[in-house]
Design goal:
Layout lengths: L22 H9 L2 H4 L3 H17 L5 H20 L11 H13 L12 H37 L4 E6 L2 E7 H26 L1 E2 L15 H7 L4 E2 L3 H6 L2 H27 L7 E2 L18 H24 L13 H25 L1 E2 L1 H9 L5 H12 L3 H18 L8 H7 L13 H7 L8 H14 L1
The structure holds arginine (ARG).
Arginine binds next to α6.
Length: about 475
């Protein structure tokens, strides 16, 4: 915020040579948070209204003053919402901008609002309310992403694709099962948000500067008015604590990591070489030079957002590290990290939800790839165990020879003749061909949590009940 501010005074003779403006202008610039904390205006006004109502209820201020304060705050709220409020950097932050305007509007009664309160508990209230709302919003957005996945999983509960380990073809799975893996991941993110909301849900108001206050305040009343479950228990911790912000950033970082893995798969799947999916025009871009191209920019940007969100987490952890109790001004650096992370995680979830809903699945390509790379080799080994009675280790060896034979012949396992197979192990009979197809392979994976279409439908039903 280099704009506005006080006029340059003479610069400091010891170190001010390179400073165009005097030290007090620099002080104002480093000290002010209004440039970003004005985002908290609604929470700040709500906190002040709850505080004033409680002060009047407890007889700490008069009922007339409370009415004036409440009306003044309502006016300020509509001024800010209407874009006519003039924020001043000289007034440092949202709290003092609102209070100063209140004084202009209602006169001396405004000065009674800050009784039994400090900016230290005030900012903690504002920020908790903001983070709580944002956590709720992120939770709802994740629910939307999960719902999108459930629909795709339902459509493709039996669509066979290659399952990978090391990004090498491993065993056939269904696309529905793969979708449901992401449902589990985003489901955990969602439950982490719920846990964090429950922990955050205590009101800091009335902790005052750090020690509490001699006025007969009712913290339960303000907590209830602001929608918190209860007041915090320790006034020192209350003004020192930014765990709720750190938790939000941690959850956002984990969710961003999940989104980046999905984004990476979308990038890979949408290459012509894979061709598993086609992104909708709405979520891809063209190239300015290569007319044939359709680029997965949204997925790439979702993948990249992880960088700044992880960065915000590390930034705030580092700000908080080693801070003595209670409040220190360092903590003012909490907001921009959280604001930026919230904006970007929500954008990433929204973009991903759109991509998942809109993308076209190429089931033929998936199925063809699922059969490549001898992906049913494990099925052959399992058949030898089950039908021939071989120990698994021996079955593994026999299957390895079958893979080598198929490789030499240039076919897949199902392309070997019965004579080819009998030459490898005499007890193999024609029934083996039933397990060599990818459909048979996925259908056989009926263990709980496995990829069989029936199992996938069970997972979907479980989630639908809980969403
Ligand atoms: N702008 C400050 C912040 O964001 C508000 C609290 C200031 N408290 C104080 N004692 N200077 O943290």
């Amino acid at each position: 915020m280099a704009d506005g501010g006080s006029e340059p005074k003479s610069s400091n003779t010891m170190w001010g040579g390179r400073f165009a403006s005097g030290p007090d202008a620099i002080m104002e610039e480093i000290n002010a948070s209004i440039g970003f904390d004005k985002k908290l205006f609604a929470q700040d006004i709500a906190g002040s209204k709850a505080h004033a109502a409680m002060l009047a209820h407890q007889g700490i201020i008069s009922a007339e003053d409370e009415v004036k304060i409440a009306h003044g705050l309502d006016t300020i709220l509509s001024e800010i919402e209407g874009g006519t409020f003039e924020f001043s950097r000289r007034l440092e932050d949202i709290h003092m901008n609102v209070e100063s305007r209140l004084a202009t509007l209602i006169g001396p009664a405004a000065g009674r609002l800050h009784t039994a309160r400090s900016r230290n508990d005030q900012v903690a209230v504002d920020f908790r309310l903001w983070v709580k709302a944002e956590m709720g919003k992120a939770e709802r957005m994740l629910t939307g992403l999960i719902a999108a996945f459930l629909d795709r999983a339902e459509e493709h509960a039996a669509t066979v694709m290659p399952g990978f380990t090391h990004l090498q073809t491993a065993q056939p799975v269904t696309f529905g099962h793969h979708c449901m893996a992401y449902v589990e991941m985003f489901g955990r993110d969602r439950s982490r948000l719920r846990d964090a909301i429950a922990r955050l849900d205590e009101s800091p108001l009335g902790a005052a500067a750090l020690a509490g206050t001699p006025y007969p305040i009712d913290r339960h009343m303000t907590a209830a008015a602001l929608g918190f479950r209860e007041p915090t228990r320790n006034s020192i911790d209350t003004v020192s604590d930014r765990d709720f912000a750190l938790e939000f950033l941690s959850i956002a970082a984990i969710a961003a990591t999940h989104l980046s893995r999905l984004a990476e798969e979308i990038v890979i799947w949408s290459t012509p070489q894979f061709g598993f999916i086609r992104l909708s025009d709405a979520f891809s871009t063209g190239s300015s030079i290569m007319p044939q191209k359709k680029n997965p920019d949204a997925a790439e940007l979702v993948r990249a957002k992880t960088g700044r969100i992880n960065g915000s987490l590390i930034a705030l952890l580092t700000v908080m590290k080693g801070l003595p109790l209670a409040y220190s001004k360092d903590m003012q650096e909490d907001k921009e990290q959280v604001f930026d992370a919230a904006e970007n995680i929500e954008l990433a979830i929204a973009a991903m939800t759109g991509m998942v809903r809109d993308m076209t699945i190429n089931a033929d390509r998936m199925k063809a790839a699922a059969g490549a790379g001898f992906s049913t080799a494990t099925d052959l080994a399992d058949w030898l165990v089950r039908e021939v009675g071989l120990p698994f280790r021996d079955a593994h060896h026999v299957t390895g020879r079958a893979v080598a034979a198929a490789e030499a012949k240039g076919c897949d396992l199902a392309g070997l003749t019965l004579d080819d197979l009998k030459a490898i192990h005499g007890a193999i009979d024609a029934r083996v061909y039933d397990v060599l197809t990818v459909e048979a392979s996925v259908a056989s994976r009926t263990s709980f949590g496995g990829t069989s279409p029936a199992g996938v439908r069970n997972q979907i039903a479980w989630w639908r009940e809980r969403l």
